[in-house]
Amino acid sequence: MQILTELRGPRVAAAFACGGLLALAGALMQTLFRNPLAEPYLLGVSGGAGLLALLGMAAGLAWPWISLLAFAGSLLALGLAAALGGRMLARDHTPLLLAGVMLAAGFGALIALVLSVAPAERLPGMLFFLMGDLAWTGNAPLLLAALGLAIAAALALSRRLDVLQLSPLKAASLGVAVAPTRWTLFGLAGACTSLVVAQAGSIGFVGLMVPHALRKLGFTGHRVLLPAAALAGGSLLVLADALARTVIEPRELPVGVLTALLGVPMMLWLLRRP
Amino acid sequence: MSLTTQQLSLRTGTRALVDTLDLALEPGEVLGILGANGAGKSTLLTVLAGLARPAQGQVLLDGQSLADLPPLTRAQHIGLLPQGDEGGFFGSVADFVALGHFPFSGPVPDLAPHLAAWELTDLANRPLDTLSGGERQRARLAQLAVQQPRIALLDEPLTHLDPAHQARLLAWARSEADAGRTVVLTLHDPNWAACHCDRLLFLHGDGRWQLGTPAGLLTPDSLEALYGPGTAALWRQGGRGQTV
Q1: Is the ipTM above a cut-off of 0.85?
Q2: pTM for the full model?
């Protein structure tokens, strides 16, 4: 019983919240960029978080500090993307997209640099962080509260988000304040992603696949899509984390490996549907 | 109850597109805007819709500056059909058409008549991105019809439409005008402009503009002045040549 309430319960709750936040962020990013291939890490969030977290690990810092560094790194990436590419957001999202992709590439190079000079005994921890790992996640109540708040905020935006799928000019002609709404989306998706990355590293694929798959299954209106994405993303990550803990017991796999292994076949199957 | 411009000037970079335009759109009229590519037709529509600021002058809706109107209030009165597709929309045709109701509160009205008017009834449940170019243009027109703006601004609405649906668009524009609303459209066919517009606005792309009736404005000389030498002959051969 103690194992259930003190170990397993919080971890399952954290996995659910992380998966939900990532899928929600992915859905918001896909609407922000009017592109079904957009995902939460598009703007360099995982790169910024990974770089600072790895620097912390290389310096021998322990977990709460690594988490704070990762959070700071993701905010740094978002800030840089907004400052470098955000000027035209009312009309054109391409500069923001390009700035984010460039930042992600730059952070990727710096991460490779840190990995190549880091002490060998610290490499496994670094790799687990980069692939996403729920073993350290200690703050399930915070994550669940954040998920609840994020769903509520996203639902409040949902009608405007339906319109925001149209061209910026058409959306504006229907009365949507395009730039403020897009910045709100950017901030909300960024906050969800940063929170998860700081708690669990860069868990991949959930944020891309879940909203994309739900759209393919016919969940196209945001009032339904957003809560459905949170629910499905959370469930997928709970399942992936259960497998990550058990398939090669007593060792654990990084959960990011499992999300991709589960997600890729599901996605390919969906793509083949008429 | 009308949209008016006062001393309106539009620029792109340093080049003047439209110089000090005074235009009063009346309820019940169809105004056609003609001009060469890049003459400022789309820019003018965007400014008339209150979605871009003019270099100088202002646009007034019932005497109130468009710049001072909240976006939703503006969208309850003025609708715009921009060029270009809606590539990011994942939902069905019916979902797409229903977005025309966004500026208004309350439940979405019955879409069936609008879908039927644009022959979209059988396509209503299809994903928008599976439609052909012309079908998608009809969906965009149906969306505008749901918005039912007092002032409808249409940028090359004939694009992609087959002749039957061009005729349908014409009938729609006339019925809107007969109901006391205003329709402004950009187009390239002087015959169409001659037959179906109450007034025309020529944009020369260098600041000069001309406003008048089709009978007064559409002459071979004025068309060549607008589009370049040799262009009037294109339309003189094209059927309804009595006006051109």
Answers
A1: yes
A2: 0.91
